[in-house]
Amino acid sequence: MKKLFPLLFLMFAFTASGQSLQDKINTFEQKNAYKIDYDKSSDRTIVTIGEAVVRRAEESKSPVNAISMGATFSFSGEDLKDNVGEYRLYLQSSCPRWCFLENHSLILLTDSEKIDLGNGEFNARVGYGHGEGVTETMVYTLRPSDLAAIANSQTSRLKLGNFVFVLNEDHKRMLKNAVELGTIAK
User: Fold this and answer.
1) Is residue 37 part of a domain?
2) Which among 39, 107, 108, 128 is placed 20 to 30 Å from 172, CA to CA?
3) How many Å apart are CA 130 and CA 107, to the nearest integer?
4) Domain assignment of residue 71, given as a range
5) How many domains does the chain have?
6) In the predicted model, is pLDDT for residue 54 greater than 80?
7) Assigned domain for 56 exists
8) How far apart are CA 109 and CA 156, in angstroms?
9) pLDDT at residue 52, as a whole number
């Protein structure tokens, strides 16, 4: 019994501290859209959320074929011990030609806020043959409060370069879930 007591104490302490990330993900509607990867060599966990299509070509006469959005965050170790301090929002476009090379600044418009995220990080590749076209990826760093503002607003829009995209309820739920995953319940 003496040897069993410390084990029972540890089990209780873990259970009392809250759900694991995977347990939280299992409560989400689209649990397959979430991925947890632990890199043992760097002792870092990376959580990826999404991708969700924000816009398709048939929605307008724009040259953009599709824009997809996702989010990610990382932390030290295998278990989240502190609230996440920053998230990375990524947008990826598929176009027959360059759409965001000259202007990939991102402005988030919510009910009451305008959040200017600047130019972020930009990466692109040009496909030849069957994968013809240009794929552009933009990555922006957000505070948890920015992500929560987008997720909790009645109307959320992304202004990427010269294009404006409206986020639907599924997009906002995905971002709200990202904030929930990165927050330790008290």
Assistant:
1) yes
2) 39
3) 33
4) 18-181
5) 1
6) no
7) yes
8) 6
9) 76
What pTM was computed for the model? 0.78
Report the C-alpha gap between 134 and 136 in whole angstroms.
Answer: 6
Range 22-41 average pLDDT? 86
CA 156 – CA 112 distance, rounded (Å):
10
In a domain, 5, yes or no: no
Rounded CA separation 137/50 (Å):
14
pLDDT in tens, 82-97: 999 999 999 888 888 8
Does residue 127 form part of some domain? yes
Distant-in-sequence, close-in-space partners of 58: CB < 8 Å, separation ≥ 6: none
